[in-house]
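Revision sheet: structure tokens.
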Amino acid sequence: MQCLLAWGELARDLPTGGRGCENWSVLVTEPILWETKIVQKLLIGFLTLVVAYVVASPYVTVYYMKAAAEQRDGEALSDYVDLPAVREDLKDQFNAKLGSKMAQEIDDNPFAVLGGLLAGVMVNKMVDTFVTPSGLIELMKGEVPKASGSGDGGDGERNKPFGQADYRYEAWDKFSVIVPDQDGDEARFILRRRGLGWKLTSVKIPMDGL
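Predicted:
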């Protein structure tokens, strides 16, 4: 009974007189609408941050790769590199180039096939030897990689890793870092999305001079 009396007193005090129920409804719903707008703004802000992170994440990965390379920290660099995938990709590139040359020479040289097979074995060993975190640091500078463990020191520091590189998205899950070498040719470092992060999975090097 007391609740009903309080409702009646509140209705009489409303400025619109006889429309007390409608105004009471407005008083109740306005805070709900206000809270809904806050939730919507928070959700939009959260989604904006997520999109910004997704777009910027390969640039962040490249930044950490550069920092590790400048410190010659091969272990830190390895966190952002799928080294087996990079090696396999380079082996495929060299073997494809050898296969193309062998196809041109096979008519004139019957031993071209044997030579190609031996060269393929040598290529695989060479890639395994040279394509290490230290070798990748040299490639990031646009320089020829040295054998494993011999890339520390020397005059290789004259260029910074990815110092003159261009960056671009190739697809939503593919990002390229393009590094010019001393001869004006370009190597392409390809990163692929791995969950929420990115990893270097391929290095495309110029084959015209081989």
